[in-house]
Amino acid sequence: MRPSIVLLLAVGVLFAAGTILLLERTLTRVLLGVMLLGNGANLLVLAAAWPGSPPIVGTADPAEMTDPLPQAMILTAIVITLGMTAFLLALAYRSWRLSGHDEVQDDAEDRRVRELAERDEGSDAEDLDTDETETVEVRA
C-alpha cells in the first residue's frame, strides 16, 4: 500500500505554511510556524511508514505488520513540539509584558552589519559610475 496523494499534499502545505510563518518577525507567528512544521514532520513520518496490520504477534503475517518505531518517533516528536511551543509561548508573553508587542527587534549588531553593507553597496555603485565615464583610447 502507498500513502494517498492527499496526505502528501497536506504534508507539503504544512511545511510551506510553517516555513513562511517562521520567517515573520512576530513571535506568535513563529510559534504557529513551529507547530505547523512539527505536525508536518509527524505526518511525513506517518506517510513514510504507511500503516499495515497491527504489530501484534499472532494476528497477522510478520511481513505485513507495521513497524512500531515510526509511531514511537512521532510520539517523541509530539513531546518535543509541545516543549518548543511552551518555550516560545513564554517568550512571546514575556516580550508582550515588557514592550506591549511580540515583534522581535533588530539587534545592534544586525543594524551595524546592515549599515556596513549599505555603505559597501554605495561605494560599489560609485566605482561603477566612474568606470563608465572613463574612455579608453586604442592606438593602432
UniProtKB/TrEMBL annotation:
Keyword Metal-binding: no
Primary location class: membrane
UniProt-annotated stretches for the region Disordered: 107-140
Keywords per UniProt: Cell membrane, Membrane, Transmembrane, Transmembrane helix
Stored Pfam families: Oxidored_q2 (PF00420)
Membrane protein topology class: Multi-pass membrane protein
Localization per Swiss-Prot or TrEMBL: Cell membrane
Ribosomal protein in keyword set: no
Family membership: Belongs to the CPA3 antiporters (TC 2.A.63) subunit C family.
Transmembrane segments: 6-23, 30-52, 72-93
Signal peptide: none
Entry-linked InterPro entries: CPA3_antiporter_subunitC (IPR050601), NUOK/Mnh_C1-like (IPR039428)
Biased amino acid composition, Acidic residues: 123-140
Species this protein is from: Actinoplanes sichuanensis
Name of the protein in question: Na(+)/H(+) antiporter subunit C
Biased composition (Basic and acidic residues): 107-122
